[in-house]
Design brief:
This protein has 208 residues and is α/β, with parallel strands linked by helices. The chain is built from five helices and eleven strands, in the order H-E-E-H-E-E-E-H-E-E-E-E-E-E-H-H. A hairpin with a 5-residue loop joins strand 4 and strand 5.
Length: 208
């Protein structure tokens, strides 16, 4: 009898212990691709984050593009979305719904390479953005049917001509998202004096 009571008490005690909650993530680093392995080979967008931020944990992520990486305490989480909007959408949706993580207070860093007008910047430049813009949500007219006085056939949703705002004066909400301006300014001031890697070869390439 006493043994049964002891077993029941042990079972009740075990059941009363709360299951471990989700890991509270402080920063999510989002990249789009990696050239090979996460470490030790030719780097893409993700490798230096893994190596320099010590994202030593490798976490399964079957619904995503590839496995997740996290710091030892789980406070920094790295994810590779895959190229293109469909991959990025499905990967981040899967991450947001993953019960292993509490992302409610996390900061998000979207760190990717991009093209730039050479009149404004050169290869190897860095930029902080104040807005996220979905440039795919536009009208496009076949090049054979574009009016002769138009420079190109793409125009904003609701606009009448390229380079103009929509007639309503409003941009669809799902096209433009303004980032936290104070946070962007803080990040810029923190990094604005960093000296970027450069070589004579890059200098000659810029000259073209």
């Amino acid at each position: 009898m006493h043994q049964r009571i002891l077993v029941m008490l042990l079972l009740l005690a075990a059941g009363s212990q709360a299951a471990p909650g989700p890991t509270r993530v402080k920063v999510v680093v989002v990249t789009m691709f990696e050239a090979g392995e996460d470490t030790g080979d030719r780097p893409g967008e993700f490798q230096f984050w893994v190596e320099r931020e010590n994202l030593t944990q490798v976490l399964p992520f079957d619904a995503g593009n590839r496995k997740l990486r996290a710091s030892a305490d789980g406070s920094v989480l790295g994810v590779v979305t895959g190229m293109g909007e469909s991959n990025a959408t499905s990967t981040i949706m899967a991450l947001g719904m993953d019960s292993r993580f509490d992302l409610s207070q996390a900061y998000w860093i979207v760190a990717g390479i991009a093209g730039v007008d050479p009149a404004d910047a050169s290869i190897g430049s860095a930029a902080w953005a104040n807005y996220v813009l979905d440039g795919d949500l536009v009208y496009e007219i076949d090049s054979h049917e574009v009016p002769t006085d138009w420079r190109y056939g793409r125009l904003a949703t609701g606009a009448k001509r390229p380079g103009e705002m929509p007639a309503s004066g409003k941009i669809p909400e799902n096209m433009v998202f303004q980032l936290n301006p104070k946070l962007v300014e803080w990040a810029y001031q923190l990094t604005r004096n960093l000296k970027l890697y450069d070589t004579p070869e890059l200098d000659r390439f810029r000259a073209t």
